[in-house]
Design a protein that fits this description.
Layout lengths: L4 E4 L5 H13 L4 E4 L6 H18 L2 E5 L2 H6 L4 E4 L6 H7 L5 E6 L2 H9 L4 E4 L16 H12 L5 E4 L7 H5 L5 E4 L1 H5 L4 H11 L10 H4 L1
Parallel strand pairs: 1-2, 1-8, 2-3, 3-4, 4-5, 5-6, 6-7, 7-8
């Protein structure tokens, strides 16, 4: 079962990423995504090895952004693929069978493509403008999530992402998303993690259609 709250790491250096991951895990994060877009592959590999050690100690899941070969090498729990990254079907053939694959989407059509490529979850966004990502896709807002999820009708977890704050949680959750991926708000205050988890759980409804047993049936 994939956690409902994802922390996406931030940092200007490898050390800052690791320090933030450590703080997130110590504060109760159940899933951390290592996202190092402007670093060399060698830096990402070395950081991923250390992040695996940290997350393993806390029994926190580790997802590697983009670098699926590194995800396999360090035995991370999975990889998250952006729209310009590798094809999920090729990545599935490369990874261990137990590793998760997430994909980024901004539109209904992109979600459907990812579903056809058998991803384990979809990161759908952005909810609003965020400066943590370059070449940002059009913002969705609550209306965008509602319209896409109503038409998508999937059991695969959809994770909202992009500029989300605690004040947005309940309104976003009632659109039918499964959970949230947070970066900036958590990095500014790691003590907010328990509150985020509480709000996300409280905002869940009976309309959450994903059953953790479904993954075992695929």
């Amino acid at each position: 079962m994939i956690p409902k709250l994802h922390y996406i790491s931030q940092g200007k250096t490898s050390e800052e990423h690791l320090e933030n991951i450590q703080k997130a895990c110590a504060s109760g994060a159940e899933l951390v995504q290592l996202r190092m877009k402007s670093f060399s592959e060698e830096d990402v590999l070395e950081t991923a090895k250390k992040a695996r050690g940290i997350t393993g100690h806390f029994q926190t899941r580790l997802i590697i952004n983009d670098y699926y070969k590194i995800a396999k090498e360090v035995k991370a729990d999975g990889v998250h693929l952006g729209k310009l990254d590798a094809d999920p079907l090729e990545v599935r053939a490369y990874l261990f069978s137990w590793q998760l694959i997430g994909g980024t989407a901004n539109t209904l059509e992109e979600c459907q493509v990812l579903l056809n490529k058998k991803v384990d979850y979809i990161g759908l966004g952005p909810f609003r403008y965020t400066n943590t990502k370059e070449n940002l896709s059009p913002v969705l807002g609550e209306k965008g999530y509602s319209e896409i999820l109503e038409k998508l009708k999937t059991d695969i977890p959809v994770i909202a992402v992009g500029g989300i704050t605690q004040y947005d949680i309940l309104d976003i959750m009632i659109t039918g998303v499964y959970g949230m991926a947070i970066s900036g708000e958590i990095t500014r205050d790691f003590n907010s993690i328990p509150k985020f988890k509480e709000l996300i759980a409280g905002g869940s409804t009976e309309e959450q259609r994903w059953n953790p047993e479904d993954k075992n049936k695929q």
